[in-house]
Amino acid sequence: MKRKHITIIKIAGAAIFFMALAVWIGMMLGVRSRENRAESRPASTAAGTVESAAESAVSGESLPADSETIPAESETVSVPEPSPEPVRLADHVTGIRDFTIIEGMVPDVMASILWDDPVLDVTADTGTCDFSLPGIYDLTYSLVGADGRDEKMTIKVTVRHDLEQFLYGMEGAVYVPVGGDFDPMENVVCDDEIAKIEPDMSAFDTTKEGEYLISYHLTGTDGVSQTAVRRVHVGDEPVSPVPGQQVQTDVGEYSTVTDLGLWRLTAYMDTPEDQGPYVGQTASGAPLVAGRTVAVSKQTCDRLGLVFGDRLMVDGYVYILEDYGGSAMYNSDWLDIFVDNVEDEYSERFNRYAEVYLLR
Known about the structure:
By secondary structure, this protein is of the alpha+beta class. It has helices spanning 2-59, 245-250, 272-275, 298-304, 342-345, and strands at 93-94, 99-102, 114-115, 119-125, 135-145, 150-160, 167-168, 174-176, 189-190, 194-200, 210-220, 225-234, 257-268, 293-296, 311-314, 317-323, 334-338, 352-359. The protein has 3 domains: 93-160, Immunoglobulins (Immunoglobulin-like), CATH 2.60.40.10; 162-237, Immunoglobulins (Immunoglobulin-like); 250-360, RlpA-like domain (Barwin-like endoglucanases, Beta Barrel). The protein contains 5 helices and 18 strands. It starts with a helix and ends with a strand.
């Protein structure tokens, strides 16, 4: 039994020895592994640095002097946001649009045009437009922005024929007895340029004495419309075509007074816009005198037998026919009165219809 116990003790001691030896070997292997990893890390880092330096040399880039390692991922480069598109100046202007006028009219090309803060100013260039001749013209507006930019806007201006120049038989006042009949188309004729004439008799009443203006709706062959007016008196025709004491005094030196009817009145000035190449001249050779000189179309003069020097009276005031002037292209009865200021040229006094009398 004693020997058996000794054998067991030897076996247990041997087991303990081998277990201690295994632990020691394991510990030694772990320490060696850590040393190997510590030794291999600088070498690997150095190799990576040399390798990155070589790549940088090829690409032309330099590494930071104090850098030992290259980041695995490159830093994000910030890209500035694009500047917003500048506002369109045209979006801040209203009222610029195509329009149509009758030949001879001078439109206010800035009427109803408005703009807000991004726009400092708007101007129009009418140099390419001839409002006295039918046609289609480009009218350009210049827009100046608050930021110094400018833009152009171009519209179309249509100048069309004055249909009244193709209408005849409406000259002169018409007198209708109270309760009498009136045919608005009697003696009214037109050229082929007018496709339709439609008189408006809605305001006319032959049972009531007074003066009436009858509208005639004219439609051209091109589909455009225009309105002409005719003056009709309901009542007895006066013995004298020029009633009133002042008028009688003004015409006392003349032997005959002829009512030429209802004419269109306009005014003109001695400017290139109104006179063209005839600035400072009249067709008769007489000087231009405001309040005296008037112009009538040659066609009207030939038809009515008017000559230079004839006295034409409007509203009791006597003018002298001395020019053919601006309305020479028209066959309709049209009296151009010479004035010397813009206020008169565009005043209602000279842009209307009035009765015209020939004094001889």
